[in-house]
């Protein structure tokens, strides 16, 4: 089989293309897609620990610390000491971060719509369902390998 026909390659390639499109559209707002994924998770629920934010963002602790450093420098997020556990920090989105995220969400939707424009609603729903199914199966396999 040719690599261009490999399902893993196709999924990865599509993801990289989408990331590039988003990066190009986010560039004028001086934020990377990696930073936005963390900012958006805080937008969904802030006041969570760095560890929980890392889990939700699918980033390791080192990367989440680096990204939060960048978001703090830009005034988009803040970390505060966790009074319940002095070894951890709680992460919060700032009003400036909330405003930026509300600007970026429609851009993300436009990018996705531009690449899915030729698909009907049923095709998009099926693609979403199949990608979730692949993700769950991959996670299950990873867990089994870790046992």
Automatic annotation (TrEMBL):
Keyword Endoplasmic reticulum among UniProt keywords: no
Superkingdom of this protein's organism: Bacteria
InterPro entries named among the record's database cross-references: HTH_MarR-typ, MarR/SlyA-like, WH-like_DNA-bd_sf, WH_DNA-bd_sf
Entry-linked Pfam families: MarR
Annotated ranges, domain HTH marR-type: 4-136
Gene3D superfamilies cross-referenced by the UniProt entry: Winged helix-like DNA-binding domain superfamily/Winged helix DNA-binding domain
Keyword Transcription tagged: yes
UniProt keyword annotations, A-Z: DNA-binding, Transcription, Transcription regulation
Protein name: MarR family winged helix-turn-helix transcriptional regulator
Source species: Paenibacillus aurantiacus
């Amino acid at each position: 089989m040719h690599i261009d026909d490999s399902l893993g390659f196709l999924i990865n390639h599509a993801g990289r293309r989408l990331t590039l499109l988003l990066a190009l559209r986010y560039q004028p707002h001086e934020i990377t897609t990696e930073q936005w994924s963390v900012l958006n998770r805080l937008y969904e629920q802030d006041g969570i620990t760095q560890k929980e934010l890392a889990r939700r963002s699918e980033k390791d602790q080192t990367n989440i610390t680096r990204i939060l450093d960048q978001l703090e420098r830009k005034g988009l997020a803040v970390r505060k000491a966790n009074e319940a556990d002095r070894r951890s920090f709680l992460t919060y989105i700032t009003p400036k971060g909330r405003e930026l995220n509300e600007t970026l969400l429609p851009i993300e939707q436009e990018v996705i719509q531009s690449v899915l424009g030729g698909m009907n609603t049923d095709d998009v729903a099926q693609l979403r369902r199949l990608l979730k199914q692949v993700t769950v199966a991959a996670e299950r396999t990873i867990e089994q390998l870790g046992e």
